[in-house]
Specification:
mainly alpha, 2 domains, 9 helices, disordered C terminus, transmembrane helix, DUF697, DUF697 domain-containing protein, transmembrane
């Protein structure tokens, strides 16, 4: 089924590309015809220039993509020459990474230490992004707008994590990372509805706790917390999937990455819900006070 979908998508993309090329060429020919009414030589020169520009626009990105250095591909096992070559290339990359405190990364132990430092750095980015997703969507409560915001936030998160592990990720690495993260985290999701709500319920019971127990009219806060928690969890899981693709020393199955990322995201969710709910309660609690004080603030400004 997946192969069929990929084939259909590839055919559709190729058809759209061909149609766009035809439209562009048609417009160029028409414009050259207009110039030819002024002088035939002018029309021929302009047509040649248009063809060269179109060919350059089509072939230059392909040439640059081919010229990019190949991405680091983890081997299938921790033994053999493929693993040794991969570790050598990885040690060179980690040695040039300014986020690694070690002067040189040579041995396997040093590689593990360097990756732990980068994992800690990436965890901070993942938590910060998930917290932002929680606060924004909990307050916004706009389904379509929130979906676009979360998608953009998660794409930016993947880019930031790629830069943590590889300071200058090339197009090949980014395309591989984006494709695999999105497929692993969304298209082939292993979470059913029951398991998903179980994770949210457990995290909310730990994270919310007594934060809203003393607040009257908590239904609005609870609904906002549920919305924010769902988006925060999805963002955490995307971040963890991307992290595991970036720090892997051997190739792992998508199911393994997905399950591990889900477990770690669930552990991080409670703290984000707790901190986010406190800020949400403070924001919603102070809103009536701010609204009630506005008339007096206007009077004070008017009296001045």
């Amino acid at each position: 089924m997946k192969k069929q979908m990929k084939t259909v998508a590839a055919i559709a993309a190729l058809a759209i590309t061909i149609l766009l090329i035809i439209v562009i060429i048609n417009q160029a020919v028409q414009f050259s015809g207009v110039l030819a009414t002024i002088h035939p030589l002018l029309g021929q020169i302009s047509l040649i220039l248009f063809v060269l520009v179109i060919l350059t626009a089509l072939l230059a990105p392909l040439y640059l993509y081919i010229r990019l250095p190949s991405r680091l591909i983890p081997p299938d096992s921790e033994e053999g020459p493929d693993y040794d070559r991969y570790m050598d290339k990885l040690s060179v990359r980690l040695s040039s990474n300014p986020k690694v405190s070690l002067e040189k990364v040579v041995s396997e132990e040093e590689i593990h230490l360097a990756l732990k430092e980068l994992d800690a750095e990436s965890d901070l980015i993942i938590k910060k992004t998930a917290y932002r997703a929680f606060i924004t969507t909990a307050i916004s409560q706009n389904g379509a707008l929130d979906a676009l915001f979360i998608l953009g936030l998660q794409f930016r998160l993947i880019w930031e994590l790629a830069r943590v592990y590889s300071q200058r990720p090339n197009l090949k690495e980014l395309s591989f990372l984006y494709t695999n993260v999105m497929v692993t985290a969304f298209i082939a999701s292993s979470l059913d509805e029951a398991e998903y709500f179980e994770i949210l319920e457990s995290s909310m019971s730990q994270g919310v706790g007594s934060v809203i127990s003393m607040v009257p009219g908590t239904s609005l806060i609870v609904n906002s917390t549920i919305t924010g928690s769902s988006n925060a969890f999805l963002t955490l899981r995307v971040g963890k999937v991307a992290q595991k693709y970036c720090n892997s020393l051997v190739r792992k199955e998508r199911q393994t990455i997905r399950n591990s990322a889900t477990t770690e995201a669930a552990k991080m969710l409670a703290g984000i819900i707790y901190d986010g709910t406190k800020k949400l309660v403070a924001h919603l609690g102070s809103a009536p006070i701010r609204m009630a004080s506005r008339p007096f603030m206007r009077k004070d400004k008017g009296s001045e």
